[in-house]
Structures are given as C-alpha cells and as structure tokens.
Amino acid sequence: MPSTTSGKSKTSTLTQLQAFISGLQKQFPSGQFTLGNTVYTTAALVQLFQSLIDAINAVNAAQAAAKVAVSSSKATVTKVGPVVLALKRNLLSMYGDAATTLALFGLVPRKAPAPRTGTELAAAAAKAKATREARGTTSKKSKLAVKGNVTGVTVTPVTGPATPAAPSPSAQPAPAAPVVK
Predict the structure, then answer these.
(1) pLDDT tens sequence for the chain (181 residues)
(2) Alpha carbons 47 and 25: distance in angstroms, whole number
(3) SS3 category, 33
(4) Could you give the dihedral angle defined by the CA atoms of residues 146, 151, 157 and 158, in that order, rounded to the nearest 10 degrees?
(5) Helix or strand (DSSP H, E) at 40
(6) DSSP 32
C-alpha cells in the first residue's frame, strides 16, 4: 500500500485498510513481519492501520463540518449583507462629510471625484462618438455587445477667436465624368 492516499479515493483506502486488519487478525493473529527493515507484529500493524483509518475519518468529519460552516456563513451573509449596506448608505447620507462622527462607525466620508482634465474629457467624448457610430441602429442587446475604439486623440488648445474659413474652389472635388456606353 502506498504511503499516501492521493492515488485512491478515501473510501477505497478505508476499505483496503479494514480488509488488511481483518485478514491479519484471522490469518496471522500472533504473526511477525519485516517490512522495510522494520519488524512489526500483527498487533502493531493493526494499530498502525487503525491510526490511519482514524485520521481519514477525522478529515472526513472536519470537511463535512467545514461545508456546513461555509454554507451557514453564506446564508448569513446573504441575509445580513443588504442590511449592513443599507445602514452604511444611511449613515453616509446622514453625516455626509462629518469625519469624526463617521469614524465612530468605522466609516470615512466619500471622496469627491477628481476633476477631469481636458484631455480626459476629449477622449471620453471621442470614445462615446465612436461607440455610437460602431453600434449603429441595432437591437438593445446587440448594442451592448459593441464598443467603439479610439486611437490617437490629440487636443490642440485654441489661441485666438475661431473664424470659419471659406472653402477655396480648388479644394472642391472635380465632378465625375459621365459614363459613355
């Protein structure tokens, strides 16, 4: 029998150990064995195998107790979690920025969001536009699956008043030649 039970299931290991104990007690009630340069009596082998059986049974009991404890913990979290979250939200709305009062409850005031830079605002606007164009007019669910990509957003500061430039006639595309058949 291997020194570890990793290759076999616990049930088959327990069955094998019980069979060894039963067989040794019936066939060799006062026998003596030399195993790996160590001499064992039948009683010593039975005691050794019984200790492994007891250890495996203890592990099984501990694992079963752990499963029950985890299940109980999950049920309690499911029941108590929303109450904790509601109380936290209520306290934060009641006391706002009163750090000393919130500290009594182990809470800290909400941090104000940092103002966005012009570059961040421009990138957000470009991404929103690209997403709208990429989504097109599709169903609500398929719209959620599509995201637009933005590359190379460059923000150029305006230094003077903006005046619309009149397009030059040379910049206009030439009309297409008629197709002759």
Answers:
(1) 445 545 678 899 999 999 999 999 998 888 888 898 899 999 999 999 999 999 999 999 999 999 999 999 999 999 999 999 999 999 999 998 889 999 999 999 888 888 999 999 999 999 988 887 787 766 677 777 777 777 777 777 777 665 655 555 555 555 555 556 5
(2) 11
(3) strand
(4) -70
(5) strand 38-41
(6) E
Copy the structure tokens of residue 55.
């250890």
Amino acid 4: pLDDT: 53
What is the torsional sign of CA 38, 43, 45, 50?
negative
Cβ-contact 19, 27 below 8 angstroms: no
DSSP 54: H
3-state secondary structure 78-93: HHHHHHHHHHHHHHHH
Q: How far apart are CA 97 and CA 105, in angstroms?
A: 13
Question: What's phi and psi for 173, nearest 5 deg?
Answer: -70, 145
- Residue pair 133/140 in contact (Cβ under 8 Å)? The answer is no
How far apart, in whole angstroms, are the C-alpha atoms of residue 59 and residue 47? 18
Helix, strand, coil % over all residues of the chain, rounded to 5 = 60, 5, 40
Do 112 and 96 form a contact (C-beta atoms < 8 A)?
A: no
Full-model pTM: 0.47
* Residue 158 confidence (pLDDT): 74
Cα–Cα distance for residue pair 44/174, rounded to 1 Å: 105
